[in-house]
Amino acid sequence: MKKFLALFIGLSLSVWVGAQPTNYYNSANGLTGNQLKEALHNIIKGHSSIAYSQLWNAFWSTDNKGNGMVWDMYSDRPNGNPPYTYYLGQDQCGNYNSEGDCYNREHSWPQSWFNEQTTPRSDLHHIFPTDGFVNNKRANYPFGEVRSATWTSQNGSKLGTCKTLGYSGTVFEPIDEYKGDFARALMYMSVRYYSEDGGWASSEMTNKSEILPWAINMLMRWNDQDPVSEKEKLRNEAIYNDYQHNRNPFIDHPEYARMIWDPTWSLNESSETTVYLFPNPIEAGQTLHLSGNNQQFDAIVICDLSGRTLLKATGNAVGDGSVALPNDFAKGCYIIKLMRGTTVLKYSKLIVK
Fold first, then answer.
1. Average pLDDT value over all residues in the chain
2. Do residues 293 and 275 lie in contact, with contact meaning Cβ atoms separated by under 8 Å?
3. For the CA atoms of the chain, what is the radius of gyration?
4. Contacts of 80 (CB under 8 A, 6+ apart)
């Protein structure tokens, strides 16, 4: 779900504290491409699988919008005023004739794509409670971006012909506020079942557990444009603590998406830009300056080598601005992301000595 960030005249700086367990991703540090994918697979594989019938109960902690209301991404609206609401334990499908009748269990990675194998069939990281009628409309079509809609739900989700480069068949497009949620769910599935997909089928979007190039390029863009929300973080914690005891790496570290699937991802400085970060190396407590911003960056993000966001400064003043590192900022090598809107335009290295 999108985070709406206010832009201030001066820089606003905040520390992001992740809830993930200490050292959970240590074995993935410094890796990219298939090496990172394999390392993450080894971290999250072998999770505690729950029974398919237990999903209804799990939704009470994973998708409870408050007071037992179902958080349905196929009916929710950005203004928080959905056209209809469901309550956990009361409105389960069941039979349905139209939108608003009941909710059921939506596999964002459709069951036919993995031949209904038991473990992925009940994997909470990709299963969400959604309106049964809309779920049926989505069927096992790929997610995509619709050029011409043949059907539109009450919250604006669409079914129709695809306009995404590389595919022109029928796709289902969720609303913008939840595109990142679904992208990170599908990326999780590709990594969790990497090398464990011998009995899986393929689809217009996938080759067994591999996501096809046209689709992964789109999903990486969705991941960038719709940042991780508090909803996703809380859901990830509930699944980890109460049910499966594994995590979705792309919620904890959305940078992993491009580190795995974007062949142009690099920490190398670009010779085509005249942006300077100084001093570099820097010491904790000192101020990092940005100058020469001819690309109109409006955010500076400091990440550790695993991609976890540690500090983020936003605002128009980032143009030729400065960021003060806390006095207790640890020594080491970090990643700087220079952004405009939700797009990363440049990566740089930062050494704290």
1. 87
2. yes
3. 21
4. none
Nearest to 152 by CA among 85, 74, 73, 70: 74
Asked whether the beta carbons of 70 and 103 are under 8 A apart, the reply is yes
Question: How far apart are the C-alpha atoms of 167 and 146, rounded to whole Å?
Answer: 11
Q: Are 31 and 305 in contact (CB under 8 A)?
A: no
Q: Report helix, strand and coil shares of the chain as percent, to nearest 5.
A: 30, 25, 45
For residues 129 and 176, give the distance between their C-alpha atoms in angstroms, rounded to a whole number.
Answer: 18
CA neighbor of 189 nearest in space, from 40, 85, 72, 306: 40
What is the pTM assigned to this prediction? 0.75
pLDDT of residue 142: 98
* Percent of the chain topping pLDDT 90: 63
Read off the DSSP letter of residue 92. Answer: B
d(C-alpha 28, C-alpha 31), whole Å: 6
Q: Are 352 and 312 in contact (CB under 8 A)?
A: no
Residue 280 tokens read as 């570099």
The order of strands in the sheet holding 299-303 is: 12-15, 309-314, 299-303, 332-340, 343-352
How many Cβ atoms sit within 10 Å of the Cβ of residue 340? 15
Q: Which domains does the chain have, with CATH numbers?
A: 1-30+267-353 (2.60.40), 31-261 (no CATH)
Give dist(CA 177, CA 78) in Å, integer.
7
pLDDT confidence tier of residue 321, bands split at 50, 70 and 90? low
Would you say the C-alpha torsion 97, 231, 160, 207 has a positive or negative sign? Answer: negative
* E-only strand ranges, the chain: 12-15, 64-66, 69-70, 103-107, 127-131, 146-152, 158-162, 170-173, 206-207, 210-211, 276-278, 287-291, 299-303, 309-314, 322-324, 332-340, 343-352
Angle at 284 between CA 281 and CA 290, to 5 degrees: 55
Residue 117 buriedness (CB in 10 A; 0-12 / 13-18 / 19+): middle
- Asked if 186 and 113 count as a contact pair (C-beta separation under 8 A), the reply is no
SS (H, E, C) 26-49: HHHCCCCHHHHHHHHHHHHCCCCC
